[in-house]
DNA sequence: GAGGTCGCTAAGCGCTCGCTCACCCTTGCC
DNA sequence: GGCAAGGGTGAGCGAGCGCTTAGCGACCTC
């Protein structure tokens, strides 16, 4: 279940759960295409071509093009939520848990940029019922981060006048990494994760911000 | 030139420079449609319909659908750059200028969310030469923010180990407001602007962060 | 080796897309 | 009034879209 494979590049591949091999190849091709061009600019012929199949093969494994996006979005959000939960429910202080959560969340958005892009920016391309499901997952993501911040405020480690707004800002900062991160750029996902963990600790007024490098 | 009109809602309307009246109406309709559905999911029939014209009228004023996006993107980026420049070249301390820059930049992204969404998220829908032009404008935006941060580091007001990375994070934080801001939500653009200015001052280690409410 | 099933393909249907073209109505100038 | 110019329309072209269907070959079962 939680045994996700990792490549040398560090990109997590949680697609092992997509079971017929052809269905997984199609889904991977769709992730690439959606991330490059966007959902609406991607054709079913393009997806099938990338997977080395004819256009009709897509409809054996998926009912519509939108079902592909829905599957990608749900699996991606579940993975993101899993990452945050692991960090949020760890054993350290709120400061340590927030730094963990931010750095791992950012690593996922940077390292798995293609997946994260689709997951975070194609929500509006889903139909109403599929979008409602994904919005529910996002609320859980939000609640995990807010929980850590509230813990830190309770213990006195953090100084946060606006918990709700700060939660929003922290998540927004992490998510937007998927928009600008460049694999061929000067920074690794790990470096961005460390930098962002430090910046977020500063945002919440953590007392040892900056001393964790 | 710089006499942009403002509505009661606070949304800046810098489209006065688009001269034939019909051309401006079409451009405004396109901004709305692109922001709602995305560039690729918007049809020329939809744009013309919103402007109260027949589909063919669009091609009297614009050569292609892409030219519409290009015009919107250029005007929007120039406005954003103008806002940042005004704040960056003000008279106060780096702390005051950074707070000004962030709060006004965020107000623009929140208040003019429809425009900002198109400007910030449809870059990849442009062709190569148009995209190159816009990327140049973005570099200037980046340079303005980096300039303020470098000033603060020089005067000792800021404590920033990684100026380049922090600049990226600050801009990213502001830009992503256009993705999640909801006009019917609980916060006004002004409130978000103030909150974000405080958060950014904390990120750069400004000495009076939080004392500016 | 006959028959059923499954994964896949070639061909193409119905539709909508971006865009064009022949033509019209209003306006201003002589 | 004649008439050129320019903003606008209705109809429609060629192309490409998402998706369907008839059929084919490889494989399992008996």
TrEMBL record, chains A, B:
It comes from the Bacteria. Keywords: DNA-binding. Residues 43-62 bind DNA. Pfam families: TetR_C_24 (PF17932), TetR_N (PF00440). Residues 20-80 form the HTH tetR-type domain. Signal peptide: none annotated. This is TetR/AcrR family transcriptional regulator. It comes from Streptomyces thermospinosisporus.
């Amino acid at each position: 279940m939680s045994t996700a494979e990792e490549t040398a590049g560090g990109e997590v591949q949680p697609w092992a759960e997509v079971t017929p091999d052809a269905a997984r190849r199609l889904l991977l091709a769709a992730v690439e295409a959606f991330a490059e061009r966007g959902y609406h600019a991607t054709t079913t012929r393009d997806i099938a071509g990338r997977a080395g199949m004819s256009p009709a093969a897509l409809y054996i494994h998926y009912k519509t093009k939108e079902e592909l996006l829905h599957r990608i979005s749900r699996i991606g959000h579940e993975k993101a939520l899993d990452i945050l939960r692991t960090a949020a429910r760890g054993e350290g202080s709120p400061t340590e848990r927030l730094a963990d959560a931010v750095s791992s969340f950012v690593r996922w958005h940077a390292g798995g940029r293609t997946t994260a892009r689709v997951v975070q920016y194609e929500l509006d391309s889903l139909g109403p019922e599929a979008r409602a499901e994904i919005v529910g997952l996002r609320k859980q993501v939000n609640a995990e981060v807010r929980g850590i911040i509230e813990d830190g405020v309770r213990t006195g480690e953090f100084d946060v006048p606006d918990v709700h707004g700060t939660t929003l800002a922290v998540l927004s900062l992490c998510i937007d990494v998927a928009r600008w991160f460049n694999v061929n750029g000067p920074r690794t996902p790990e470096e961005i994760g460390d930098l962002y963990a430090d910046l977020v600790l500063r945002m919440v007024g953590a007392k040892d911000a900056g001393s964790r490098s």
